[in-house]
Amino acid sequence: MVNLANDWNGPNDPDNPRNFPRIIRLSSMVAVTLLAFTGSFAGAIYAPAQEQIMQWQQCTYEVAILPLSLYNLGLAFGPIIGAPLSETYGRKAVFVVTTPLCILFLLGGGLTTTIASLSVCRFFAGVFASPNINNASAVILDYSAPHSRGVSLGMYYSVPSLGASIAPLVGGFIVPHRSWRWTQWVAILVTGGFYIPVLFTRETYKKVILRRRAIALGLTDAYSSSSTPKHPLRYFFTVLIHRPIHMLLTEPIVSFVSLYNGLIYGLLYTFVTSIPWIFATYYDFGPAAQSLSYLGVTVGTVLACAPFALIDIRFYQRRLQRWKSAHGEGSQLPPQNRLLSALVGSIPLPASLFIAGWAAEYRVHWIVPIVFQGVAMLSCFLVYAGANLFMLDVYGPLYSARGWVGDQLVGVFDAGDGADSLVFLGLGGVVEEEESKTADGLPKTAAVDAVFGRAAATPSATPPCTYVHAPPSH
Protein backbone atom coordinates (compact mmCIF):
# COMPACT_ATOMS: atom_id res chain seq x y z
CA MET A 1 0.00 0.00 0.00
CA VAL A 2 2.85 2.42 0.74
CA ASN A 3 4.11 1.93 -2.81
CA LEU A 4 0.81 3.29 -4.13
CA ALA A 5 1.60 6.62 -2.48
CA ASN A 6 5.15 6.87 -3.81
CA ASP A 7 5.15 5.48 -7.33
CA TRP A 8 3.00 3.98 -10.05
CA ASN A 9 1.64 0.53 -9.28
CA GLY A 10 3.35 -1.01 -12.31
CA PRO A 11 3.28 -0.05 -16.00
CA ASN A 12 -0.52 -0.39 -16.21
CA ASP A 13 -1.40 1.89 -13.30
CA PRO A 14 -4.66 3.62 -14.32
CA ASP A 15 -3.58 6.85 -12.62
CA ASN A 16 -0.54 7.13 -14.90
CA PRO A 17 -1.42 9.73 -17.58
CA ARG A 18 0.12 7.49 -20.24
CA ASN A 19 -2.58 4.93 -19.44
CA PHE A 20 -5.50 7.37 -19.72
CA PRO A 21 -7.99 6.53 -22.51
CA ARG A 22 -6.71 7.71 -25.88
CA ILE A 23 -9.57 10.18 -26.37
CA ILE A 24 -8.69 11.87 -23.06
CA ARG A 25 -4.99 12.06 -23.93
CA LEU A 26 -5.60 13.45 -27.41
CA SER A 27 -8.25 15.96 -26.32
CA SER A 28 -6.07 17.18 -23.43
CA MET A 29 -3.03 17.64 -25.66
CA VAL A 30 -5.11 19.55 -28.21
CA ALA A 31 -6.64 21.75 -25.49
CA VAL A 32 -3.33 22.76 -23.88
CA THR A 33 -1.68 23.22 -27.27
CA LEU A 34 -4.40 25.65 -28.37
CA LEU A 35 -4.01 27.54 -25.11
CA ALA A 36 -0.26 27.77 -25.73
CA PHE A 37 -1.09 29.16 -29.18
CA THR A 38 -2.85 32.11 -27.52
CA GLY A 39 0.33 33.07 -25.65
CA SER A 40 2.22 34.02 -28.80
CA PHE A 41 -0.94 35.12 -30.65
CA ALA A 42 -1.77 37.75 -28.01
CA GLY A 43 1.75 39.12 -28.25
CA ALA A 44 2.15 39.35 -32.02
CA ILE A 45 -1.34 40.64 -32.87
CA TYR A 46 -0.17 44.04 -31.62
CA ALA A 47 2.46 44.36 -34.38
CA PRO A 48 0.23 45.92 -37.10
CA ALA A 49 -1.02 48.53 -34.61
CA GLN A 50 2.34 50.27 -34.23
CA GLU A 51 1.59 53.02 -36.76
CA GLN A 52 -1.73 53.85 -35.08
CA ILE A 53 0.01 53.91 -31.69
CA MET A 54 2.60 56.37 -33.05
CA GLN A 55 -0.19 58.69 -34.24
CA TRP A 56 -2.24 58.23 -31.06
CA GLN A 57 0.61 59.01 -28.65
CA GLN A 58 2.75 61.15 -30.98
CA CYS A 59 5.70 58.90 -30.18
CA THR A 60 8.60 57.38 -32.07
CA TYR A 61 8.72 53.92 -33.62
CA GLU A 62 11.06 52.74 -30.85
CA VAL A 63 8.48 53.72 -28.21
CA ALA A 64 5.54 52.27 -30.15
CA ILE A 65 7.23 48.87 -30.34
CA LEU A 66 7.75 48.73 -26.55
CA PRO A 67 4.40 47.00 -25.77
CA LEU A 68 5.41 44.15 -28.10
CA SER A 69 8.96 43.86 -26.73
CA LEU A 70 7.81 44.05 -23.11
CA TYR A 71 5.20 41.35 -23.72
CA ASN A 72 7.99 39.09 -24.94
CA LEU A 73 10.12 40.08 -21.95
CA GLY A 74 7.20 39.00 -19.76
CA LEU A 75 7.20 35.64 -21.55
CA ALA A 76 10.84 35.23 -20.51
CA PHE A 77 10.08 35.75 -16.82
CA GLY A 78 6.89 33.70 -16.78
CA PRO A 79 8.57 30.33 -16.08
CA ILE A 80 9.92 31.71 -12.80
CA ILE A 81 6.28 31.89 -11.68
CA GLY A 82 4.86 28.95 -13.59
CA ALA A 83 7.46 26.29 -12.78
CA PRO A 84 7.24 26.56 -8.96
CA LEU A 85 3.43 26.65 -9.15
CA SER A 86 3.43 23.58 -11.37
CA GLU A 87 5.83 21.78 -9.00
CA THR A 88 3.59 22.51 -6.03
CA TYR A 89 0.02 22.50 -7.33
CA GLY A 90 0.19 20.65 -10.66
CA ARG A 91 -0.11 21.46 -14.35
CA LYS A 92 -3.84 22.20 -14.45
CA ALA A 93 -3.74 24.60 -11.52
CA VAL A 94 -1.25 26.77 -13.39
CA PHE A 95 -3.51 26.95 -16.45
CA VAL A 96 -6.57 27.71 -14.32
CA VAL A 97 -4.92 30.52 -12.33
CA THR A 98 -2.60 32.30 -14.77
CA THR A 99 -4.84 32.51 -17.85
CA PRO A 100 -7.54 34.73 -16.25
CA LEU A 101 -4.77 37.03 -14.98
CA CYS A 102 -3.38 37.27 -18.50
CA ILE A 103 -6.86 38.17 -19.78
CA LEU A 104 -7.23 40.87 -17.12
CA PHE A 105 -3.98 42.55 -18.16
CA LEU A 106 -4.95 42.33 -21.84
CA LEU A 107 -8.20 44.04 -20.86
CA GLY A 108 -6.24 46.71 -19.02
CA GLY A 109 -4.08 47.23 -22.10
CA GLY A 110 -7.14 47.68 -24.28
CA LEU A 111 -8.62 50.28 -21.91
CA THR A 112 -5.42 52.23 -21.27
CA THR A 113 -4.93 55.86 -22.22
CA THR A 114 -1.11 56.10 -22.27
CA ILE A 115 1.70 54.16 -23.93
CA ALA A 116 3.34 53.68 -20.51
CA SER A 117 0.34 51.92 -18.98
CA LEU A 118 -0.15 49.90 -22.18
CA SER A 119 3.46 48.71 -21.97
CA VAL A 120 3.12 47.75 -18.30
CA CYS A 121 -0.15 45.88 -18.87
CA ARG A 122 1.29 43.94 -21.78
CA PHE A 123 4.41 43.05 -19.81
CA PHE A 124 2.30 41.41 -17.10
CA ALA A 125 0.04 39.83 -19.72
CA GLY A 126 3.19 38.18 -21.10
CA VAL A 127 4.28 37.04 -17.64
CA PHE A 128 0.97 35.25 -17.08
CA ALA A 129 0.73 33.92 -20.65
CA SER A 130 4.17 32.31 -20.48
CA PRO A 131 3.27 29.44 -18.10
CA ASN A 132 0.68 28.28 -20.62
CA ILE A 133 3.39 27.85 -23.27
CA ASN A 134 5.85 26.08 -20.96
CA ASN A 135 3.22 24.03 -19.14
CA ALA A 136 1.69 22.69 -22.36
CA SER A 137 4.94 21.01 -23.35
CA ALA A 138 5.15 19.52 -19.85
CA VAL A 139 1.66 18.02 -20.24
CA ILE A 140 2.63 16.49 -23.58
CA LEU A 141 5.73 15.01 -21.93
CA ASP A 142 3.54 13.55 -19.18
CA TYR A 143 1.51 11.76 -21.85
CA SER A 144 4.41 10.70 -24.11
CA ALA A 145 7.05 8.00 -23.65
CA PRO A 146 10.62 9.25 -24.28
CA HIS A 147 11.08 7.27 -27.50
CA SER A 148 7.87 8.61 -29.06
CA ARG A 149 7.85 12.22 -27.93
CA GLY A 150 9.73 13.52 -30.95
CA VAL A 151 6.73 13.82 -33.27
CA SER A 152 4.25 14.98 -30.61
CA LEU A 153 6.59 17.66 -29.25
CA GLY A 154 7.67 18.57 -32.77
CA MET A 155 4.04 19.28 -33.66
CA TYR A 156 3.68 21.28 -30.47
CA TYR A 157 6.83 23.38 -31.01
CA SER A 158 5.32 24.75 -34.23
CA VAL A 159 2.33 26.19 -32.37
CA PRO A 160 3.93 29.25 -30.70
CA SER A 161 5.60 30.17 -34.00
CA LEU A 162 2.28 29.68 -35.79
CA GLY A 163 0.54 31.97 -33.32
CA ALA A 164 3.21 34.63 -33.81
CA SER A 165 2.87 34.45 -37.61
CA ILE A 166 -0.94 34.24 -37.86
CA ALA A 167 -1.61 37.02 -35.34
CA PRO A 168 -0.14 39.90 -37.42
CA LEU A 169 -2.13 38.69 -40.42
CA VAL A 170 -5.33 38.89 -38.33
CA GLY A 171 -4.30 42.19 -36.77
CA GLY A 172 -3.52 43.65 -40.18
CA PHE A 173 -7.14 43.26 -41.23
CA ILE A 174 -8.51 44.53 -37.91
CA VAL A 175 -6.49 47.72 -37.43
CA PRO A 176 -7.46 49.57 -40.67
CA HIS A 177 -11.19 49.02 -40.04
CA ARG A 178 -11.22 49.27 -36.25
CA SER A 179 -8.93 50.91 -33.72
CA TRP A 180 -5.77 49.30 -32.36
CA ARG A 181 -7.74 48.44 -29.21
CA TRP A 182 -9.48 45.69 -31.15
CA THR A 183 -6.20 43.79 -31.29
CA GLN A 184 -6.53 43.42 -27.51
CA TRP A 185 -10.22 42.51 -27.66
CA VAL A 186 -9.56 39.78 -30.23
CA ALA A 187 -6.67 38.47 -28.13
CA ILE A 188 -9.01 38.29 -25.12
CA LEU A 189 -11.70 36.44 -27.11
CA VAL A 190 -9.22 33.90 -28.50
CA THR A 191 -7.56 33.34 -25.13
CA GLY A 192 -10.88 33.00 -23.31
CA GLY A 193 -12.29 30.66 -25.94
CA PHE A 194 -9.32 28.29 -25.78
CA TYR A 195 -9.20 28.52 -21.98
CA ILE A 196 -12.59 26.85 -21.48
CA PRO A 197 -11.66 23.35 -22.81
CA VAL A 198 -8.61 23.26 -20.51
CA LEU A 199 -10.94 23.45 -17.50
CA PHE A 200 -12.20 19.95 -18.40
CA THR A 201 -8.77 18.31 -18.69
CA ARG A 202 -7.23 16.04 -16.03
CA GLU A 203 -4.13 16.59 -13.92
CA THR A 204 -1.03 14.92 -15.39
CA TYR A 205 1.84 15.78 -13.03
CA LYS A 206 3.00 12.62 -11.28
CA LYS A 207 3.84 14.17 -7.91
CA VAL A 208 0.43 15.83 -7.58
CA ILE A 209 -1.43 12.70 -8.71
CA LEU A 210 0.44 10.59 -6.14
CA ARG A 211 -0.20 13.16 -3.41
CA ARG A 212 -3.93 13.13 -4.12
CA ARG A 213 -3.96 9.34 -4.20
CA ALA A 214 -2.10 9.20 -0.89
CA ILE A 215 -4.70 11.49 0.68
CA ALA A 216 -7.55 9.38 -0.72
CA LEU A 217 -5.96 6.19 0.69
CA GLY A 218 -5.11 7.77 4.02
CA LEU A 219 -1.37 7.43 3.35
CA THR A 220 -0.46 11.09 3.67
CA ASP A 221 2.31 10.45 6.20
CA ALA A 222 3.94 7.78 4.05
CA TYR A 223 3.92 10.06 1.03
CA SER A 224 5.12 13.13 2.90
CA SER A 225 8.06 11.38 4.52
CA SER A 226 9.61 10.44 1.19
CA SER A 227 8.45 13.09 -1.25
CA THR A 228 7.81 16.39 0.51
CA PRO A 229 10.73 18.82 0.84
CA LYS A 230 11.88 19.19 4.44
CA HIS A 231 12.65 22.87 3.80
CA PRO A 232 10.17 24.15 1.17
CA LEU A 233 11.73 27.63 0.91
CA ARG A 234 15.21 26.19 0.39
CA TYR A 235 13.80 23.73 -2.17
CA PHE A 236 12.15 26.61 -4.03
CA PHE A 237 15.35 28.66 -4.37
CA THR A 238 17.95 25.89 -4.77
CA VAL A 239 16.08 23.44 -6.99
CA LEU A 240 13.46 25.49 -8.81
CA ILE A 241 15.28 28.83 -9.20
CA HIS A 242 19.02 28.72 -8.48
CA ARG A 243 20.06 25.45 -10.08
CA PRO A 244 18.51 26.05 -13.54
CA ILE A 245 20.03 29.55 -13.69
CA HIS A 246 23.37 28.11 -12.56
CA MET A 247 23.14 25.61 -15.42
CA LEU A 248 22.38 28.36 -17.91
CA LEU A 249 25.53 30.22 -16.88
CA THR A 250 27.94 27.31 -16.31
CA GLU A 251 26.92 24.43 -18.62
CA PRO A 252 28.37 25.09 -22.11
CA ILE A 253 25.67 23.04 -23.83
CA VAL A 254 22.85 24.94 -22.10
CA SER A 255 24.49 28.32 -22.71
CA PHE A 256 25.21 27.83 -26.41
CA VAL A 257 21.92 26.13 -27.28
CA SER A 258 19.95 28.82 -25.42
CA LEU A 259 21.95 31.56 -27.17
CA TYR A 260 21.37 30.08 -30.61
CA ASN A 261 17.69 29.37 -29.95
CA GLY A 262 17.35 32.90 -28.62
CA LEU A 263 18.72 34.29 -31.87
CA ILE A 264 16.17 32.22 -33.76
CA TYR A 265 13.34 33.42 -31.52
CA GLY A 266 14.53 36.99 -32.04
CA LEU A 267 14.56 36.39 -35.77
CA LEU A 268 10.90 35.38 -35.65
CA TYR A 269 9.93 38.62 -33.92
CA THR A 270 12.16 40.64 -36.22
CA PHE A 271 9.97 39.27 -39.02
CA VAL A 272 6.80 40.05 -37.07
CA THR A 273 7.77 43.68 -36.45
CA SER A 274 9.47 44.44 -39.77
CA ILE A 275 7.43 42.70 -42.50
CA PRO A 276 4.87 45.56 -42.83
CA TRP A 277 7.69 48.12 -43.06
CA ILE A 278 9.61 46.02 -45.62
CA PHE A 279 6.72 45.63 -48.04
CA ALA A 280 5.42 49.18 -47.55
CA THR A 281 8.88 50.69 -48.12
CA TYR A 282 10.22 48.47 -50.90
CA TYR A 283 7.02 47.38 -52.69
CA ASP A 284 4.47 50.12 -51.83
CA PHE A 285 2.05 47.60 -50.30
CA GLY A 286 -1.11 48.99 -48.71
CA PRO A 287 -2.32 47.93 -45.23
CA ALA A 288 -4.26 44.85 -46.42
CA ALA A 289 -1.43 43.68 -48.68
CA GLN A 290 1.07 44.18 -45.86
CA SER A 291 -0.94 41.74 -43.76
CA LEU A 292 -0.97 39.17 -46.56
CA SER A 293 2.81 39.38 -46.72
CA TYR A 294 2.85 37.32 -43.50
CA LEU A 295 1.58 34.31 -45.47
CA GLY A 296 5.11 33.19 -46.32
CA VAL A 297 6.08 32.99 -42.65
CA THR A 298 2.78 31.28 -41.78
CA VAL A 299 2.99 28.65 -44.52
CA GLY A 300 6.65 27.97 -43.68
CA THR A 301 5.73 27.31 -40.05
CA VAL A 302 2.84 24.99 -40.98
CA LEU A 303 4.91 22.99 -43.46
CA ALA A 304 7.83 22.61 -41.04
CA CYS A 305 6.11 19.79 -39.16
CA ALA A 306 6.34 17.46 -42.19
CA PRO A 307 10.16 17.36 -42.60
CA PHE A 308 10.61 17.24 -38.84
CA ALA A 309 8.32 14.21 -38.51
CA LEU A 310 10.03 12.59 -41.51
CA ILE A 311 13.47 13.03 -39.93
CA ASP A 312 12.24 11.60 -36.64
CA ILE A 313 10.49 8.57 -38.17
CA ARG A 314 12.92 7.72 -40.96
CA PHE A 315 16.22 8.47 -39.21
CA TYR A 316 15.94 8.88 -35.44
CA GLN A 317 13.58 5.95 -34.83
CA ARG A 318 15.70 3.66 -37.02
CA ARG A 319 18.85 4.65 -35.16
CA LEU A 320 17.03 4.03 -31.89
CA GLN A 321 16.01 0.51 -32.94
CA ARG A 322 19.54 -0.33 -34.08
CA TRP A 323 20.94 1.01 -30.82
CA LYS A 324 18.54 -1.07 -28.71
CA SER A 325 19.34 -4.17 -30.74
CA ALA A 326 23.04 -3.67 -30.08
CA HIS A 327 22.95 -2.41 -26.47
CA GLY A 328 19.74 -3.80 -24.98
CA GLU A 329 16.11 -2.70 -24.79
CA GLY A 330 16.59 -0.39 -21.82
CA SER A 331 19.57 1.52 -23.21
CA GLN A 332 19.32 5.18 -24.20
CA LEU A 333 20.36 6.47 -27.61
CA PRO A 334 22.94 9.30 -27.18
CA PRO A 335 21.12 12.67 -27.07
CA GLN A 336 23.22 14.08 -29.92
CA ASN A 337 21.07 12.10 -32.35
CA ARG A 338 18.24 14.54 -31.66
CA LEU A 339 20.27 17.29 -33.34
CA LEU A 340 19.85 15.83 -36.83
CA SER A 341 16.91 18.10 -37.68
CA ALA A 342 18.86 21.10 -36.34
CA LEU A 343 21.79 20.29 -38.62
CA VAL A 344 19.44 19.94 -41.60
CA GLY A 345 17.68 23.23 -40.83
CA SER A 346 20.89 25.16 -40.27
CA ILE A 347 21.96 24.81 -43.91
CA PRO A 348 19.08 26.67 -45.66
CA LEU A 349 18.56 29.13 -42.77
CA PRO A 350 21.37 31.63 -43.48
CA ALA A 351 21.00 31.15 -47.25
CA SER A 352 17.27 31.93 -47.20
CA LEU A 353 17.83 34.99 -45.02
CA PHE A 354 20.45 36.29 -47.42
CA ILE A 355 18.22 35.77 -50.47
CA ALA A 356 15.10 37.25 -48.82
CA GLY A 357 16.93 40.37 -47.67
CA TRP A 358 18.79 41.25 -50.82
CA ALA A 359 15.87 40.30 -53.09
CA ALA A 360 13.79 42.98 -51.38
CA GLU A 361 16.71 45.42 -51.35
CA TYR A 362 16.97 45.17 -55.14
CA ARG A 363 13.17 45.14 -55.66
CA VAL A 364 13.04 41.63 -57.09
CA HIS A 365 9.42 40.45 -57.47
CA TRP A 366 7.70 40.47 -54.06
CA ILE A 367 6.99 36.72 -54.15
CA VAL A 368 10.73 35.99 -53.80
CA PRO A 369 11.25 37.49 -50.31
CA ILE A 370 7.90 36.06 -49.17
CA VAL A 371 8.87 32.54 -50.27
CA PHE A 372 12.32 32.70 -48.72
CA GLN A 373 10.96 34.15 -45.49
CA GLY A 374 8.85 30.99 -45.36
CA VAL A 375 11.93 28.84 -45.98
CA ALA A 376 13.73 30.70 -43.19
CA MET A 377 10.87 29.99 -40.77
CA LEU A 378 10.81 26.31 -41.74
CA SER A 379 14.55 26.13 -41.09
CA CYS A 380 14.18 27.97 -37.78
CA PHE A 381 11.63 25.43 -36.63
CA LEU A 382 13.85 22.45 -37.52
CA VAL A 383 16.73 23.95 -35.54
CA TYR A 384 14.62 25.02 -32.57
CA ALA A 385 12.71 21.73 -32.21
CA GLY A 386 15.81 19.56 -32.60
CA ALA A 387 17.78 21.60 -30.06
CA ASN A 388 14.95 21.47 -27.51
CA LEU A 389 14.55 17.70 -27.83
CA PHE A 390 18.29 17.37 -27.34
CA MET A 391 18.05 19.39 -24.12
CA LEU A 392 15.18 17.21 -22.92
CA ASP A 393 17.17 14.03 -23.48
CA VAL A 394 20.25 15.39 -21.70
CA TYR A 395 18.80 17.30 -18.76
CA GLY A 396 15.22 16.12 -18.33
CA PRO A 397 11.95 18.10 -18.49
CA LEU A 398 12.39 20.08 -15.27
CA TYR A 399 15.69 21.69 -16.22
CA SER A 400 15.50 21.89 -19.99
CA ALA A 401 12.43 24.09 -19.62
CA ARG A 402 14.57 26.77 -17.98
CA GLY A 403 16.43 27.23 -21.25
CA TRP A 404 13.25 29.03 -22.36
CA VAL A 405 14.24 31.96 -20.13
CA GLY A 406 17.57 32.34 -21.90
CA ASP A 407 15.97 31.89 -25.32
CA GLN A 408 13.38 34.55 -24.60
CA LEU A 409 15.80 37.10 -23.12
CA VAL A 410 18.21 36.82 -26.04
CA GLY A 411 15.28 36.84 -28.45
CA VAL A 412 13.71 40.00 -27.03
CA PHE A 413 16.89 42.04 -27.37
CA ASP A 414 17.76 40.57 -30.76
CA ALA A 415 14.28 41.38 -32.09
CA GLY A 416 14.54 44.96 -30.82
CA ASP A 417 18.00 45.32 -32.34
CA GLY A 418 16.80 43.98 -35.69
CA ALA A 419 13.80 46.29 -35.83
CA ASP A 420 15.88 49.38 -35.01
CA SER A 421 18.67 48.43 -37.42
CA LEU A 422 16.27 48.27 -40.37
CA VAL A 423 16.05 52.03 -40.32
CA PHE A 424 19.82 52.57 -40.30
CA LEU A 425 21.30 49.67 -42.30
CA GLY A 426 18.59 49.00 -44.84
CA LEU A 427 16.99 45.60 -45.32
CA GLY A 428 19.91 43.92 -47.06
CA GLY A 429 22.36 44.98 -44.37
CA VAL A 430 20.15 43.82 -41.52
CA VAL A 431 19.39 40.43 -43.07
CA GLU A 432 23.06 39.93 -43.88
CA GLU A 433 23.78 40.67 -40.20
CA GLU A 434 21.18 38.09 -39.11
CA GLU A 435 22.51 35.61 -41.68
CA SER A 436 26.01 35.99 -40.28
CA LYS A 437 24.73 35.39 -36.73
CA THR A 438 22.97 32.16 -37.70
CA ALA A 439 25.82 30.96 -39.92
CA ASP A 440 28.34 31.60 -37.14
CA GLY A 441 26.08 30.24 -34.40
CA LEU A 442 25.61 26.69 -35.60
CA PRO A 443 29.31 25.78 -36.06
CA LYS A 444 30.02 27.12 -32.58
CA THR A 445 27.16 25.16 -31.08
CA ALA A 446 28.16 22.04 -33.01
CA ALA A 447 31.78 22.44 -31.90
CA VAL A 448 30.77 22.71 -28.25
CA ASP A 449 28.54 19.67 -28.70
CA ALA A 450 31.44 17.73 -30.23
CA VAL A 451 33.77 18.65 -27.37
CA PHE A 452 31.37 18.62 -24.43
CA GLY A 453 28.43 16.58 -25.75
CA ARG A 454 29.48 13.26 -24.23
CA ALA A 455 30.20 14.92 -20.91
CA ALA A 456 26.90 16.79 -21.03
CA ALA A 457 25.04 13.49 -21.20
CA THR A 458 26.49 12.62 -17.77
CA PRO A 459 27.06 16.03 -16.14
CA SER A 460 29.30 16.34 -13.12
CA ALA A 461 28.84 18.51 -10.05
CA THR A 462 25.14 18.36 -9.15
CA PRO A 463 23.47 16.16 -11.77
CA PRO A 464 20.74 18.21 -13.44
CA CYS A 465 18.37 15.24 -13.63
CA THR A 466 18.58 14.54 -9.89
CA TYR A 467 15.33 15.55 -8.21
CA VAL A 468 15.84 16.63 -4.62
CA HIS A 469 13.06 15.62 -2.22
CA ALA A 470 10.66 15.06 -5.11
CA PRO A 471 9.99 12.08 -7.38
CA PRO A 472 10.69 12.36 -11.09
CA SER A 473 7.70 13.22 -13.23
CA HIS A 474 7.68 9.72 -14.69
TrEMBL record:
Q: Does the keyword Transferase apply?
A: no
Superkingdom classification of source? Eukaryota
**Which keywords fit this entry according to its UniProt record?**
Membrane, Transmembrane, Transmembrane helix
Report the membrane topology from the UniProt record. Multi-pass membrane protein
Q: Which GO terms describe its molecular function?
A: spermidine transmembrane transporter activity; spermine transmembrane transporter activity
- Write down the species: Aspergillus nanangensis
Query: GO cellular component annotations, sorted alphabetically?
Result: plasma membrane
The name under which this protein is listed is Major facilitator superfamily (MFS) profile domain-containing protein
Looking at the record, the residues that make up the Major facilitator superfamily (MFS) profile domain are 28-474
Q: Which Pfam families match?
A: MFS_1
Compartment annotation: Membrane
Locate the transmembrane regions by residue number: 23-47, 59-81, 93-118, 155-176, 182-201, 253-280, 292-316, 337-360, 366-392
